[in-house]
Write the structure tokens for this entry.
Amino acid sequence: MKRAVGCGYKVNFIFVCVESLALCQVRILERVDSGGHAVPAEDVSRRYSRSLRNLASAFDLAERVFILDNTEEKRRLLLSVEHGRERETSPSALRKSRRAQKKIPYLPHKRPNLQNK
């Protein structure tokens, strides 16, 4: 992303997440049972943790950011940011998430420094 921004590209960042590493692993097992490919558990764990660590930097680099929660059957838009300004937020999703922040590690405890709409 840094290189693309440095070359003058506009970067859109779409982060699709689920509430836990365990859910990622369950979905992979379901995919394997349906004929899909497997992913070693240590790779899933490493990638899950790394993606969460990199989330804050992506906010700083991207022109537009979309955070989607794919935990439930229907995906929910949690947050949309354009040029550092919050454009759309799902109040009920964020309320739920704030109550559950200790259980849902993918939501930053400190939200990015966003400008008002």
Q: What stands out?
A: Residues 97-105 have pLDDT under 50 and may be disordered. The chain has four helices and four strands.
